[in-house]
Known about the structure:
The chain is of the alpha/beta class.
Amino acid sequence: MTTPAAVLWDLDGTIVDTEPLWMAAETALAAQYGATWTEEDGLGLVGNDLMESARIIEARIDSGLTPEQIVAHLVEEIVVAMRRDLPWRPGARELVHALADAGVPQALVTMSYREIAQPVVDLLPFDAVVTGDSVTHGKPHPEPYLAAARALGVDAASCLAIEDSATGAASADAAGCVVLAVPHMVSVPDGPRRRLRTTLAGLDPAGVAALWSGA
């Protein structure tokens, strides 16, 4: 049974359950300016490039802040929350370690900035890291996944990407990856090179190889 040349991991909602932290920070920011930010608004940003999300937030709350200022504020809030607690998603941490033990190269591919990703990077054995502040075009553009594959010295088409959002899955699709979608806060539509699971709990390298072989 063949295995992917590498496994490329999304972060938010896939490895750690940070989406509620982002939504809380967005809601609090909107409240500072007398605006309302709903759960539906927050869900609409899941998987997005942070600067694009900031532009959407500003159009809604009319704070007078620049997108850069909004991103800086949100990043600071999430960093504080991540340093306090890492809300791991079921099975994700265990699968990263198991794949590393099996010799499968892995990269983190996240639209969160490096400062946010660092606590996770410090604890998990990734061979490469691509963050939102290291690319020109964020998800759903293919650049993040292409950059990760390039950093690992493999073809993106030979990689399995693990994602929880439609935006992230679209990015991996566009790069040519096979996508393992594990929806969490938002739904992810099926596709010809997609595999859907409800959880990563119980998934091991043999299971990953089986998913890959069926792609």
